[in-house]
Amino acid sequence: MGERQGKGRGFGRRETLPFSGGPVEKDYLPGINLEDTGKLLFIMALATLLGLGFEHLGFSKAIIMALYILGVLLISTQCSGRGYGAASSLIAVLAFNFFFTVPRFTFVAQGAEYPVTFIIMFIISLITSTLTLRVRRQARAQARSAHRMAVLLDTSQKLQRAASLDDIVEVSSAQLCRLLDRTIVFYPVSDAALARPVLLSPAGVEEAPGGLLSAEEEKTAARVLGSQEPAGRTTEVCPGAMAYYFPVCSGDQVLAVVGVVLGEGEQVDPMDLSLLQGLQSEIGFALEKYRLGEIQKEISMQAERERLRSNLLRAISHDLRTPLTSISGNASILLSDGARFEEGARHKIYGDIYDDAMWLISLVENLLSVTHIDNGTMEIRRQPELCEEIVAEALRHLSRQAGEHHIAVDIPDSLLMVPADAGLMVQVIINIVNNAIKYTPAGSAITVSARREGEKAVFEVADTGGGISDRDKARLFDMFFTIDNNRGDSRRGLGLGLSLCKSIVEAHGGEIYVKDNLPHGTVIGFTLQAEEAFSNA
């Protein structure tokens, strides 16, 4: 088999593949086909019988000759190979001579016109069969061309719709297999290494050649990845491989390695070569587009992380100054002139220092939790916990302003349990209740409830404050988002508390939400999977 070994390095460069020549057309296949031979004999016998009938009815010999020419035409359309057309032309002449010329039933013909008649009849029959075969070949070529163009167009459309790397690999493998009608092994490249291959065979994966995914075949594909040159069958590199491997590249970077399984002496239509170039280009473009998209996503994520860090540092530097200044100022007053203040005044200063310190402690805890979530190091130790105990523990750690509100607890089922990390869930409830305390006027009612709804446990913190606008509800759980506080408090939040609550609840597989508390106020709630009491007993 002739060879044209690939020297190119991917799409965008002209690359030749080892598929030289084309499959030998069936019209030129040597040998005898029993089915086609039977068709030839049947049609010639039928033409002879019809000719004998027409002769008995008094038809001229020209009509009988036309019958044989029609038979040759039918044989050329029904049988494979030019040999059958030539054979039918010769048989038609001999049969006409044997059955319809004097003396009958011999191959001797009387009359000088018969040899010329036989020659003309043979030439007409031969030309008829040749033209018929040519039309058949052109029809098949047009059908193949239409099939190839349909594959290219279909590939382009499917790759444009592919949303993931798996989709690209699946579409590419299927279209290559469909175009070449050969088993395809497709190695995506990830982090400069071969990823898990995809195998596709026209007859089904079960019928794919054994050993195609062996370590030796993978080494051949790895050679292609390293050298960016074709390897495998029909090449000088690893010629014993089962497939011919070639790279799909973008510039000098290999995006995939594709293997086409070839049998001994197998060839591919040269028309498929140029179409394969088109497929390589489409596949390479799709892989490059995906790679650039992933890079863009990573850049966007890095930019977002940097933006969050900048916002965090800016917020910390701005918002820590006020409580730290208050703590240091009040402590300085107590150290220098504390004895001159009355007990009530000193107690108020102590209270201010305590409130500022507790605010800083809460802030630091939230910052540490945000850091753990951002780094992916948050450990969630789930175990069955009583909802009543979680709420009771959270209410013991509220801000000092909790005394200015009417806080109630509503948990009808004292045995309601959830599989959760108790420490994290306590932090969630503390953040939500403190948020209600901060944003509602003194004297407002705050109710902390927990109930079962189907297989879910629903926690809610409802207040009777002024409520939250629909615009603010959409951003309530975003990091660094804060609602304007009109209390005149010297401290303002960093917008971490509710964002942290959302991350913790979702890490437990739950959902957090906000809604209006009719007739006025706000409800912030979240759901967790409920657990039957004493289910582990």
Automatic annotation (TrEMBL):
One example GO MF annotation: ATP binding
Assigned keywords, A-Z: ATP-binding, Kinase, Membrane, Nucleotide-binding, Phosphoprotein, Transferase, Transmembrane, Transmembrane helix, Two-component regulatory system
UniProt enzyme class: transferase
GO cellular component, one term: plasma membrane
Record field: catalytic activity: ATP + protein L-histidine = ADP + protein N-phospho-L-histidine
Parts of the chain that traverse the membrane: 40-71, 83-102, 114-135
Superkingdom to which the source organism belongs: Bacteria
This enzyme's EC code(s): 2.7.13.3
Intracellular or extracellular location(s): Membrane
Membrane topology (UniProt): Multi-pass membrane protein
Pfam families per UniProt: DUF4118 (PF13493), HATPase_c (PF02518), HisKA (PF00512)
This protein's record includes keyword Phosphoprotein: yes
Histidine kinase domain span: 315-532
Xref: PANTHER family: SENSOR PROTEIN KDPD (PTHR45569:SF1)
Stated name of the protein: histidine kinase
